[in-house]
Design goal:
By secondary structure, this protein is an alpha/beta fold. The protein contains five helices and seven strands; from the N terminus they run E-E-H-E-E-H-E-H-E-H-E-H. The structure holds guanosine-5'-diphosphate and magnesium ion (MG).
Length: 197
């Protein structure tokens, strides 16, 4: 995918603030600090369009980005950061749940995992939610540059076992550092866009 333009649109804390749902949309979600912002920047060939955060879990907003005036990326707030009050967790849940339920132009959700870690209960819970709301999901295991090939294979197996259980969901190995998997992920995203014009 040739990125001609990639522009920040708006940060939304409620549905009234979402941009018009006139373009197909891809949402990105994952544990806080998993590498979500870096992945979006990598897909868009931008270094700092999305801030690489120093304070994980601080943002409880959905950030929307226009890509080539053809599609929209929605950066959902990260989950699973340590020691947040219940009220903040509840806010996160309401924000994300409302988005997943109501966003008609949502085509697919990219659920991001750290290839070095075993999926957490929160990751699995997220996946169950997506299934429950019948949202198409692509799994991405990022930070592959931190492991050897052999270690990557081992970890991918573990992730597959935890999530897929025979289902033919996609799992892409990615690195925002060396762009591994970028082509493959774009291909899948564009397929999703084409499947539901
Ligand atoms: N080596 C390596 N580091 C990464 C990769 N992706 C993210 N990081 C680092 O992981 C940290 C968290 O990344 P960020 O994109 O802010 O995560 P977010 O909280 O999920 O948005 C930062 O220090 C990034 O530089 C990757 O693919 N490879
Ligand atoms: Mg981030």
């Amino acid at each position: 995918m040739k990125i001609v333009s990639a522009e920040f649109m708006i940060s939304a804390v409620s549905a009234e603030q979402y941009p018009r749902a006139s373009l197909p949309e891809v949402a990105f979600v994952g544990r806080s600090n998993v590498g979500k912002s870096s992945l979006i920047n990598s897909l868009l060939n931008r270094k700092k369009l999305v801030k690489i955060s120093g304070t994980p879990g601080k943002t409880q907003m959905i950030n929307f980005f226009d890509v080539n005036h053809e599609l929209v990326f929605a950066d959902l707030p990260g989950y699973g950061f340590a020691k947040v009050p219940k009220s903040v967790q509840k806010k996160w849940q309401d924000l994300v749940e409302q988005y997943l339920l109501k966003r008609d132009n949502l085509r697919t959700v990219v659920l991001i995992l750290d290839i070095r870690r075993k999926p957490t209960d929160l990751d699995l819970h997220m996946q169950e939610w997506l299934e429950q709301y019948q949202v198409d999901t692509i799994l991405v295991a990022t930070k592959t540059d931190k492991l050897s090939q052999a270690e990557q294979s081992k970890q991918l197996k573990q992730i597959r076992a935890a999530f897929l259980e025979g289902a033919d969901k996609e799992l892409v190995a990615y690195s925002s550092k060396n762009q591994k998997g970028r082509k493959e992920l774009w291909k899948l995203l564009l397929q999703r866009m084409a499947d539901h014009p």
